[in-house]
Amino acid sequence: MKNKIVILILGLSLLSIGKTNAQLVNNGATIIVKDGATLHVDSDVTNTTGTLQLEANATLEVSGDFTSETAASFDANANSTVKFFGSANKNIKSGGDDFGKILMNKDNSVDMTLVDPMTISTNLDFTPANGNKLIIGANDLTFGSTATVSNNGTNRYIQADGAGTVKKGYTTTGLFEFPIGDNDEYSPITADITSGTFGGSANLAVNVVDAVHPNKYNDAESHITRYWNVDATDITSWTATLTGSYTDADIVGTEANIKGASYIADWDFANAGANNANNTVTGNISANSDFTGMNYYGKMASLKAFLQGAYSGSSMTTTLNSSGLIPADTPYGTGENGITIPANVTDWIKIEIRDAADASNILKTYSKFIKNDGQIYELDGTSAPKFKDAPTSGYIAVRHRNHLGIRTTSVLDFTANPSHDFTTGSAQAYGTDPMKEVSAGVWGMWGGNANNDAYIRASQTFIPPSTTIKSDRDFILNNVLSGNANGQSDTYSDGDVNMDGHVRASQTFIPPSTTIKSDRDFILNNVLDGNANGQKDEQL
């Protein structure tokens, strides 16, 4: 049978059977392109009023603008095709009606731009030989739940770097690659929704921003200059794995340190990963998020410990802080320098991330602040601890310059924002007698390690064949106070084991009411219970 166009109602400005080199303007007619037929228009198609219908397997070829006004009807069967060809950039206006299939067959580097929202029910096909973009601007481009995209690539994609989004409908779990990019870079993102409850209008919407995320952590020196907005509608209790592609030009810092990261009110690194060879970052989300790549940060919801030397009543003193003795530079050599000391800080604290397979293997070391309530914070004094470029799991060790260190008994998963409170019981720390019960039911790190070895000793001892464990009391007298039994040092010193801002070998009274206690006596009486040959061993 000969292919033909059936005109049901007249009202065309121009009509030619099969092909026209002029505009096609419909002002009230019903135009039906029959099953298997092709209508080729070498200029604009304007559907002002009336109906333009494409039956199954029908094709409409357009070299100019396609405009279907809201007053008109564009009735495209899901298996019909609108093919855009030609050598000039042109526009598409759907008037709120759906397209079945779209074939992008423009000349190389020639694009189509949406001027209103658009829905594709079946397929968007980019011709492999040509470099065409579908530019959505501030408009949404929606793909039906079974719609697909074909032949997209580095110069054949949807430009979605404005206010508009690319939406994909979902009726169940599944994977979809959003073939998006910005003006000159292709950066698709794949979303694999692995769980969720899907309503009747369920969709996932994405677009891309060619910029550093504005909330990137300040010390994340390795990152990409690109992020994706990912928002779900009418999907509840959902989880998706995202894989975003970036370009070499996006890389800042060390690419090997860049992992997937999602942002809502803070950064999350669930299932954070990357494939440097493929220029992709990966991560999981379960709520509307921004997604990018940056240094991985292991995170904890909270971490708590007490220092015996500073513990008094039900909390720790902040004498070193109020006396202005806490230095702006960390004492642990981890590089955190020039820091303003926040209120209620007791002292610097050192955190070690230890190998999940071998707790003796220290993988990363960080300096944080410990406050008078025992909570360990970032250097701002308010944020929960985070660990840049750490492994995703490991043991946590807490160390202090004149206390014995402690560590967790089990491996923590830092992608799950764990919490750990060492203060609630001796069993919260690894080893035998790892902490001191500083008050009933409250536990703290053993104080008195003035010489910063792995032991607390009142007197020096020799363990054959070759081990000497030195006296912390002697260290205070000889190394800090130069042998002066009545000497005093009012400095930030490891010899200040009771953390009162003074190092004293013997207690002294300063009239009318000030008593400065002996740090040597603290070791003997408070730590070793008066046993001059006593010893406490670090349990790490």
Notes on the protein architecture:
By secondary structure, this protein is mostly beta strands. 4% of the residues lie in helices and 46% in strands. It contains three helices and 50 strands. It has an 18-stranded mixed sheet that branches. Strand 37 and strand 38 (403-407) form a beta hairpin. Helix 2 packs antiparallel against helix 3. The longest helix is centred in the last third of the chain and has 9 residues, at 472-480. It is rod-shaped and about 105 Å long. It starts with a strand and ends with a strand. Mean pLDDT is 94; it is low at 1-17.
List key phrases describing it:
540 residues; rod-shaped; 18-stranded mixed β-sheet; mainly beta; single chain; 10-stranded mixed β-sheet; 3 helices
Distance between the termini: 86 Å
**What is the structural class?**
mainly beta
In total, how many beta strands? Answer: 50
* SS summary, helix count: 3
**What is the percentage of strand-forming residues?**
over 45%
Major β-sheet profile: 18 strands, mixed
Work out the radius of gyration: 35 Å
**How helical, in percent, are the residues?**
under 10%
Q: Which whole number gives the mean pLDDT?
A: 94
The rough form would be described as rod-shaped
In terms of per-residue confidence, which ranges show pLDDT below 50 for 5 or more consecutive residues?
1-17
